[in-house]
Amino acid sequence: MKKMKHIVLFACGILSAFSFLAQREDKITFNDGVAAYRDGEYKTALEQFEEAYAKNNKNARALYNAGNAAYLNGDFERAGEYYSNYAELVTSPGEKSRAYFNQGNTFLQQADVMNEDPKKLEDAQELYKKAVSSYKNSLKNNPKDPDAKYNLTYALDKIKKNEQQQQQQQEDQQQDQDQNQDNQDQEKNEDQNSDNQDQNGQNQNSDNENDQNQDQNDTNGDQDKDKEDQADQEEQNKDGDPKDEEKDGQGNPGDKSEEEKQAQISRAQAEQDLDAINEDEENILKKVYGSRSDKNSKVSSGKDW
After folding, report:
1. Assuming Cys at both sites, which of 31, 41, 104, 202 could form a disulfide with 135, CB separation 3.0 to 4.6 Å?
2. Among 169, 150, 161, which Cα is nearest to 125's?
3. Domain match, 110 and 143 both
4. SS3 226
5. Per the domain annotation, does 251 fall within a domain?
6. What Rg, from alpha-carbon coordinates, does the chain have?
7. Residue-level pLDDT, tens digit, the chain, 305 residues
């Protein structure tokens, strides 16, 4: 970037005794500013030029010199305002070209500072565009100015590089956002998997408890059923009819004890023996009564009625 144009200081000379006596107060202040400026006291010079312009707002030279003092004092924003006001007051193309050139430099200075801060890239871009506009205005009034051409090219290149910076910044931000989203999704999935594992563990424990309870219930049910079957069998053995079991052939030999079997055999044998005794007695009686009948018949038949 080219440096600022050489500062043109307008000093009021002593033309005559009359002009010296008639010198206005704003010119005195103006000349005090020129003296301070030459001594490198830019802050003091700036104050003197501003005061001179406040006393006479038609003193365009005070505006231009105030812009120069502000620029060298590092106050680029104020300097740009003074150059802009000066360009509106003067009619000379050369003066206008010089004012716009210096104004473009103030925008470049501010833009370069902001361009170092990633958060201010957009603001820097706006200032680069303003600088381009100022240099174009300078060339309109002085198309052959090589410094204005050079600084215009410089500002356009800065705009291009700034756009690339912003694009790269957006890509980096998007990448960071994607990475953060991936990390959040991964953490969420890990938490969900952990919760699922805990839930599965709880469900498995509950299933095991239910299976154990079911097995216990089945065992208790089988024991109760065995007890009921045993009670029914005992009741059946107590109240059942052995004759029916023998007749139907449905009795379970294993359900009768050996003593019961022997008791049944003895009773059957006793009945058989009793029948035999009765038959013998009947035969004897028949013999006895049969003999008596024969005798009686003989006696009765012997009478003569």
Report:
1. 104
2. 161
3. yes
4. helix
5. no
6. 69
7. 555 554 444 433 322 223 343 357 889 999 999 999 999 999 999 999 999 999 998 899 999 999 999 999 999 999 999 999 999 999 999 999 999 999 999 999 999 999 999 999 999 999 999 999 999 999 999 999 999 999 999 999 999 999 999 999 889 888 888 788 878 888 888 878 877 777 777 777 766 766 676 766 666 666 666 666 676 666 665 554 444 433 444 444 444 455 555 555 566 676 676 777 667 666 655 665 554 444 444 433 333 32
Structural element, H or E, at residue 281: helix 258-301
Cα three-residue angle 278-283-284, rounded to 5 degrees: 100
Counting the structural domains of the chain, the total is 2
CA 212 to chain centre: 41
Residue 275: in which H helix or E strand, if any?
helix 258-301
111 within 8 A of 124, measured Cβ to Cβ:
yes
Q: Is 135:152 a contact under the CB 8 Å cutoff?
A: yes
Is residue 61 situated within a structural domain?
yes
Q: Kindly tell me the sign of the dihedral angle through the C-alpha atoms of 262, 263, 268, 273.
A: positive
User: Within a 13 Å sphere around the CA of 59, how many CA atoms are in the beta-carbon half?
Assistant: 25
Based on the fold, state whether residues 62 and 126 are members of the same structural domain. Answer: no
Q: Which of these three, 202, 236, 260, is where a domain ends?
A: 202
Helical H segments across 115-252, by residue range: 121-141, 146-239, 242-248
Per the structure, the complete domain to which residue 1 belongs is given by 1-90
Contact 127, 110 (CB under 8 A): yes
